[in-house]
From TrEMBL:
Keywords (A to Z) from UniProt: DNA damage, DNA repair, DNA replication, DNA synthesis, DNA-directed DNA polymerase, Methylation, Nucleotidyltransferase, Sodium, Transferase, Ubl conjugation
Source organism superkingdom: Bacteria
Protein name: DNA polymerase beta
Species for this entry: Nannocystis punicea
InterPro entries: DNA-dir_DNA_pol_X, DNA_pol_B_palm_palm, DNA_pol_lamdba_lyase_dom_sf, DNA_Pol_thumb_sf, DNA_pol_X, DNA_pol_X_beta-like, HHH_MUS81, Hlx-hairpin-Hlx_DNA-bd_motif
DNA sequence: GCCGTTTTCGGCCCGACTGTTTTCAGTCG
């Protein structure tokens, strides 16, 4: 079929992990359809686990197969799934999925995705009303056919219509910086609610994932009702999806879903751990608990009926023999083994930074840009600024670089900050203006061919699409001997973590910077950069601007010094 | 369908809330 042809085309691209993603997609769809069939839940989970593991796998399945590797070594993959992986990589599909498609339409997945409609109801809708698509679902609801079905009613029907109209959780993921605005506002409201002792945001927000799907609030309180009422009654709540004595779920007008859980003080640590996730991390920790005869849930750690830990997160980790794991590391990507061995990294903290990095575009007035950035830097106790002057690609007008660097230096001095100044060229540019600067930087918008390394390298937006969609390693390699500059730009946050991870693996130091956005926001941009560095397991030692100015100056100094460290 | 410091069989996380029920199934996180 046409479908198969399209798939094989995808798989001929062996330079990336297309095969992994294809296999993960097939397994995920099989899991969905088995769920509709009402299969054994553990069998379904096996497919779902495998889909999750393979989607995040660092190695190329097609290459592993070609090399004759044993796929059952992979987590969640046994003899059966190993065989199916081979089948999918070879043919693009899998007989089992084809069989399922003879019974269930592929689009039933969309119906299942409607909030309030799961696999069982999707099956009922399909079998009783012939609903195969979202359009069909909407038509059935509008004709009031759904309320006639057993297990449904007028309320369910209305909820389905609301969901289809996009009124209920949109599923859109919000950039971290944007979620922070909503989060902080609600946090203030919850903390002021009667009876509330403590309120925090857990979930992927706390793990500093670049985008978050919802906000998870956790509250300890003397009385439950205060916090629940405060959330449900918040001014920008569009819909209340659930409201009980210990939890509530609402959708804000922005489409952001917000969950609130209220727990007792003795359960706070266990609940915080539980609701911070990630899911994969939690399952792995619980598995450790089971091996020690412990049951771990959001209320605590229990041996038989007796609570043995749970007041703090640290007590939960300690109960299963782990060091405290910072939230940004909780992705089940090796942090549990590291914590068990006492070998966790100590991720960089914002307070360890001594300097910020400011970008001055060719059209900017350097004095004004640097003055704004310097004031913000001074306010957070920084000591110096790395000032990067962009050199335009081709410009006929002579630019007075001495005047520009002098203006920047003066602006720094006014705020009692030390400046370190450099020129930034596109990596393809051959000539550099004749002016004394402390370092030379390169902006990299495509894979580098140039042999001469700049001291500081910055991957600009767009490079990711062009050359590093899946692996920024080749870009980062260009910074060996120098450093990689990473700006906490909210719009490009998802690109940062892979870049930072690649830098760590390559042993390339990084500079974390705000970029110096005029009009404020430096502080949060710097914090965003730090949060992604933490997710990438970077320690202070790997962050150049956590070191004293003299060391940064020496590290970035052009040519000779840079070459000394091979 | 996977997995094993107790296991090659018998486990696999589980509690809260809703809507439809008359004791609970389905969904969600």
């Amino acid at each position: 079929m046409a479908r198969a042809a399209a798939k094989s085309h995808v798989l001929t691209d062996s330079s990336d992990r297309a095969a992994n993603l294809r296999v993960a997609a097939v397994f995920a769809e099989i899991a969905d359809l088995l769920e509709v069939e009402g299969e054994n839940p553990f069998r379904i989970r096996a497919y779902r686990n495998a889909a999750h593991e393979l989607g995040a796998l660092g190695r190329d399945l097609a290459a592993m197969l070609a090399a004759g590797d044993d796929l059952t070594e992979l987590p969640g993959v046994g003899d059966d799934l190993a065989g199916k992986i081979g089948e999918i990589v070879d043919t693009g599909s899998c007989a089992m999925l084809d069989d399922l498609h003879r019974v269930w339409p592929a689009t039933i997945h969309d119906v299942m995705g409607v909030p309030g409609v799961g696999p069982k109801r999707a099956r009922t809708l399909f079998e009783q009303l012939g609903v195969r698509t979202l359009a069909g679902l909407q038509a059935a609801a509008q004709q009031q056919k759904i309320r006639e079905l057993t297990g449904f009613g007028a309320t369910s029907e209305r909820n389905i219509l609301d969901a289809l109209a996009g009124l209920l959780g949109t599923g859109r993921r919000l950039p971290l910086a944007e979620a922070r605005v909503h989060g902080e506002r609600l946090l203030t409201r919850l903390r002021a609610a009667p009876g509330v002792i403590e309120a925090v945001i857990a979930g992927s927000y706390r793990r500093a994932l670049a985008t978050v799907g919802d906000l998870d609030f956790l509250v300890t309180a003397r009385s439950h009702n205060g916090a629940i009422a405060a959330l449900v009654g918040a001014p920008d709540v569009a819909h209340v999806l659930a409201e009980g004595p210990t939890r509530a779920t609402v959708v804000l007008r922005s489409g952001l879903q917000v969950d609130l859980r209220v727990v007792g003080r003795d359960s706070f640590g266990a609940a915080l751990h539980y609701f911070t996730g990630s899911k994969a991390h939690n399952i792995a920790v619980r598995r450790l608990g089971v091996a020690r005869g412990l049951k771990i849930n959001e209320y605590g750690v229990f041996r038989d009926e007796r609570r043995v830990a749970g007041r703090t997160e640290a007590s939960v980790f300690a109960a299963v023999g782990l060091q405290f794991i910072p939230p940004e590391l909780r992705e089940n990507r090796g942090e549990i083994a590291a914590a068990a061995a006492g070998e966790l990294p100590q991720p960089i903290e914002a307070r360890q930074l001594r300097g910020d990095l400011v970008l001055v575009a060719a059209g900017d007035e350097p004095g004004a840009v640097v003055a704004a950035a310097a004031a913000a830097a001074r306010a957070r106790g920084l000591e110096y600024l790395l000032i990067v002057h962009a050199v335009p690609g081709r410009s006929r007008a002579a630019i007075d670089w001495d005047a520009r660097t002098r203006a920047a230096a003066d602006a720094c001095a006014e705020h009692e900050l030390a400046p370190l100044q450099g020129l930034e060229l596109d990596i393809a540019q051959k000539t550099c203006p004749e002016v004394h600067v402390d370092f030379v930087a390169a902006r990299l918008s495509h894979a580098p061919r140039a042999a001469s390394h700049p001291a500081l390298l910055r991957i600009v937006a767009g490079a990711r699409e062009a050359d590093a969609a899946r692996d920024p390693t080749p870009l980062v390699q260009a910074a060996v001997g120098g450093a990689l500059a990473v700006i906490g730009d909210p719009a490009h946050l998802p690109e940062l973590e892979p870049q930072l991870r690649a830098a760590r693996v390559a042993g390339v130091p990084v500079v974390l910077g705000s970029g110096g956005e005029p009009g404020g926001g430096q502080a949060s941009r710097l914090d965003l950069a730090v949060s992604q560095a933490r997710r990438a397991w970077l320690e202070a030692e790997a962050v150049l601007n956590s070191r004293p100015l003299a060391e940064v100056r020496e590290h970035l100094a052009p040519r000779r010094q840079a070459r000394r460290r091979s």
